[in-house]
Input
Amino acid sequence: MRLLLDLLGKTHQRFVFQRRSQVLARNISALLEEGSSVLDVGCGNGQIAALMIQEKPSLRVTGVDIHARPSCAIPFALYDGTTIPYPDRYFDAVILVDVLHHTHRPAELLQECVRVAKSNVIIKDHYAEGYFDHKVLAFMDWVGNRAWNVKLTYHYLSRREWIDLFKRLQLKTEKLYEKGIGLYPLLFKPFFENGLHFIVKLKPLSTETVNQSQSRHSQEST
Output
């Protein structure tokens, strides 16, 4: 069994982890404005954030996580998984890469992210539409996280549940990628990619309302 686990770990590292990090860094950095200050919630070892900075060097990325890794590629702080230790609207954007399905209270954490974000929250996560999706995602989670002492709650939401969550928190979808993300090599795509992953860029409606009000006030004053 130990040999099998080691083989799974090596296969994941060689064919999945590096490619996933590079693809996510490229896609997420493209959604961020030049010079943005960014909070990476659940940053892990900071690899994706560091690759994002390579893609867009003007980004300023800080991380928070509930665990301290032996090393982290970006500045980071520990937090309790619920309350983010920064003031309101402190960062231009907040990103959560495969984080929300690790908590039983995704709405609470997402609301905290909205609180500290000036303009956008970007989420990479999963869709689970039934029993088989849950099993596949649970296996992927276990293989990818077993070595890092990451709490696995397997709390996956359906597409409808995500939409309801965003609506409840008054978040407007600005960009949504559900197909063609390219996280996995061709051989793995039919099993581990199609229909299971999404990246979404969200904007708090309250922020949009404030910006519109400021714009109208500026026009009326001229």
In short: Strands lie at 37-41, 60-65, 76-78, 91-97, 117-126, 171-177, 197-204. Residues 2-30 form the longest helix (29 residues). The radius of gyration is 18 Å. The chain is about 45% helix and 20% strand.
